[in-house]
Design brief:
- The chain has 121 residues and is an alpha+beta fold.
- It has one domain: Double Stranded RNA Binding Domain (2-Layer Sandwich).
- The protein has two helices and four strands.
- A four-stranded mixed beta sheet has the order 1-2-3-4, with helices on one face.
- Helix 1 links the parallel strand 1 and strand 2.
- The longest helix has 28 residues.
- It is elongated and about 70 Å long.
- The termini are far apart.
- 13% of the residues are buried.
- The model has no long low-confidence stretch (mean pLDDT 85).
Length: 121
């Protein structure tokens, strides 16, 4: 499972403890969806004049179909990671519900043509 998670840092030194924290938190996503191909996590630090310190956590999940992306910013790096996991988890759950609804409630195709409808024998 760890080989599917790619962690990168922008203006941040990635310590072993920080990497372990990200891997522990992101493991929750793999419990919900085992078909995740790759999970890229980018941790960024910016220093603005208006905002003193800002930590941005970005996530990109590669799955079959459209990829899932999320980004969260806060003044605490660990809080940003936690909020990112929650955001990506909600997106995975929403995607799963859409696929489940489509599978459980198939609908026929209607054409705007004046053809008579034929019943299946």
């Amino acid at each position: 499972m760890n080989s599917n998670i790619v962690i990168s840092g922008n203006h941040i030194d990635l310590t072993d403890g920080l990497k372990a924290h990200v891997i522990d938190k992101m493991a929750r996503l793999f419990k919900h969806n085992e078909r995740i191909i790759r999970l890229n996590v980018e941790l960024c630090y910016t220093h603005n004049r208006d905002k003193q310190n800002e930590f941005i956590a970005k996530g990109h999940i590669a799955v079959n179909g459209p990829d899932i992306e999320g980004s969260v910013a806060s003044n605490d790096l660990y809080a940003s990671i936690d909020m990112l996991v929650d955001k990506l988890d909600r997106q995975i759950a929403k995607r799963h519900e859409k696929h489940k609804d489509k599978r459980n409630h198939p609908h026929g195709i209607e054409f705007d043509v004046g053809l008579p409808k034929v019943g299946v024998a």
